[in-house]
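Lab meeting, item 3. Inverse folding demo.
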């Protein structure tokens, strides 16, 4: 289930990039 964690982390990084 590491793929799910990786996807969640990617989504968080994308959200942070959009916030900047």
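The presenter then showed the designed sequence:
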């Amino acid at each position: 289930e590491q793929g799910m964690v990786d996807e969640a982390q990617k989504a968080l990084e994308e959200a942070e990039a959009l916030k900047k």
